[in-house]
Amino acid sequence: MATFTQLGLEKNLLQAITDMGFETPSEVQEKTIPILLDRETDIVSLAQTGTGKTAAFGFPMLQKIHIESRTTQGLILSPTRELCLQITKELESYGKHKKGLNVVAIYGGASISDQARQIKKGAQIIVATPGRMKDMIGRGMIDISKIEYCVLDEADEMLNMGFYEDITEILSHSPKDKSTWLFSATMPKDVAKIAKKFMHSPVEITVGSKNVGTENVSHEYYLVNARDRYLALKRLADANPDIFSVVFCRTKRDTQKVAEKLIEDGYNAAALHGDLSQNQRDLVMKSFRTRQIQMLVATDVAARGIDVDDITHVINYQLPDEIETYTHRSGRTGRAGKSGVSMVIVSKSELRKIKSIEKIIQRSFTKKEIPSGMEICETQLFHLANSIKNTEVNQEIEPYLPNINEVLEGFSKEELIKKVFSVEFTRFYNYYKNEKDLNAAAGDPSAGHNPDSVRYFINIGGRDDFNWMSLKDFLKDLLSLGQDDVFRVDVKDSFSFFNTDKKHQDLVLSIFDDFKLDGRNISVEISKDGRKKGGGKSGGKGRKSGRRSGKSFDGGKPNFKGKSRRRGQKPSGKGTGGKRRRRN
User: Fold this and answer.
1) What letter does residue 443 receive in the DSSP assignment?
2) pTM
3) pLDDT exceeds 80 at position 573
4) Number of domains in the chain
5) Does 305 share its domain with 361?
């Protein structure tokens, strides 16, 4: 393995590397740094989160810029303000021996005038989120017409968040002959598209295989009934007493709700999502880094700025909208050569997604059982025993021991052990002694929640900018049902299918009685075996087979904020299909 010296880095950067305690470069650094130092080229580097990508582009940029110039020479775009600040701090650490270096972070949620003043002082490198960067360019506060290097960091995530137009606009103000360095954990079609549009014959570097997960992470899934999802989460936490985890939910609302329930139940937990102020987010992350918080419940977007070592578990409370996002989630653990566990809590209707993820990450999941209450009691007792064994005696306790010994006089060693451990055992035993088995029988994953479920046909689909997850969100919000009460959502081009439990049948049919979306009649009919049932009912009114339209909504995209509503019902405001812009 090469050393940092062999990569061709200059002395002041090597000194910073020594100061930070880095010994040998990671694989992505070893493959990327020599190429970027050796020649002016575009590059696409694919590597998982936590593999050292910031140093892979940071060191070459710091070495190649002209420190004596106050002109902006390097631009780094990243998806979130947390990641923007993190990259800025790392670059400042890498370049601390380069006198006169000025790296400025540009992001939303902070004073735009203060950031403009920092730029005016002369910033050789700007690290920015696309939204704020576009705004400041539009106001004439930033000039990137002379940049030599542009980095698109976490490119897949920026595109998932809807930043394609912003990136296009930003780069239109930059020189065509600049070097563009694209770093991404996965290589979906949109990333390939942006590489083709903005780059010239880029060198491609792949660490591992495209879109795969790290080998240091084991992948497990737990099959439960949908209504038991939260109970399963608590048991997984109790079965791992030293857990230090990120729990992923899909929406801000679910994130806040789960965090509040965990706190109410006595867990050290907190929520991290886009509705928090910057100050609130900073406080949450500070508490998490110092381990005052053991379970950080987060949305995918908010979690992009999490750079915390030693996370033991990633728990997928809900699977992500985009299957590729699972790679980013699992990359939060198993970093810096350490092992980690990625857990997925799934209901029967989601089992097929496990297979899809396995194909992408090229790793197999292990099906595991949610531990029983008595297994958790045993785990907690042994954890307490090891904690006592490994506890260093505080000598300040000596003055109190005579009185303690007097109180406990007459008890044998065995009796004292029973009493000490009964304190912990009783707490868990009383809670779990009558708790049920949470494990669901696997059965046929296509069977839905139960044999009494009803399958429906609806005349909207992919051409209306819906995917399975956005249609599910639309339906559950419109019907006021829970996250897992709408399932087996199957989106075709101009129509779709979905299931609910039979008890919701009347509700579904009544809601879609004379339902209009942007002036268009939306019909729902009971289906059988995934086929439209001719002459079936839609909201209690007979409709002949084939009465559906493949046309898109007005303007080509659904608008749930204004026109789409049932009589007397407020619009949901959710469920827009396709890629949603900065949803979390």
Assistant:
1) -
2) 0.57
3) no
4) 4
5) yes
